[in-house]
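sorry for the late reply, my laptop died twice this morning and i had to redo everyting from scratch. anyway the thing you sent over, i finally got around to it. pasting the sequence first so we're on the same page, its 222 residues, then the predicted structure underneath. double check i copied it right bc i was rushing
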Amino acid sequence: MPEVILTGPAGRLEGRYTHSKTKDAPLALILHPNPQHGGTMNNKITHALFQAHVDRGFSTLRFNFRGVGRSQGVYDEGEGELSDAAAALDWMMEINPNTPYVWIAGFSFGAWIGMQLLMRRPEIQGFITVSPPAHIEDFAFLAPCPTSGLVLHGGRDDIIPRESVDEFVEKLYMQKGIDIDYRVLPDANHFYHNNIDTMIDHVHDHMNKAQGGNNVPVKIAA
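ok and here's the structure:
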């Protein structure tokens, strides 16, 4: 899991990148939660999403948004962070010019940034959005959402009300041509304490069905 330094719009971006052993592997970009609340690329959920994609054979990158860790710049309320994510994807595409497609995954603030990025980048063909902050951020830009994906939320999340995520997903359900897989983990709080492994099982289960082949065994309690 070598450290990499990328050139972002506000200066240096610190990242961790694992290159797949498979030739011309798909890419995965993993986005961390809100920097103003301590979010970094080493957040447990972000790291777990990173490892899940590595295990599936993706060339996978996670990085610190501007102003976090060794990344230069200052927090920019989402606009600059979206530019950071685009620069990170550009970096991966440049060193993997023959990749067949990209998946994007994000937790909370990172989910919001990721959904904006997929609207701008047609090479993104799947998404994992964990606990999207639908109670404070506007997701109306997903009109229409260009690709299918997975939405995960904790049934005991006391930061992002489930009702706001239900409403967000309901609007996606109304769109034609995509399949939204919405799963609520009843015992999980916002940080998925004692539920990260179960969350990742759901990620693999969804991706097993979406990708076909290269399935990862999962155990999901009924």
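The longest strand covers residues 11-18.
thats about all i looked at so far, will dig more tmrw
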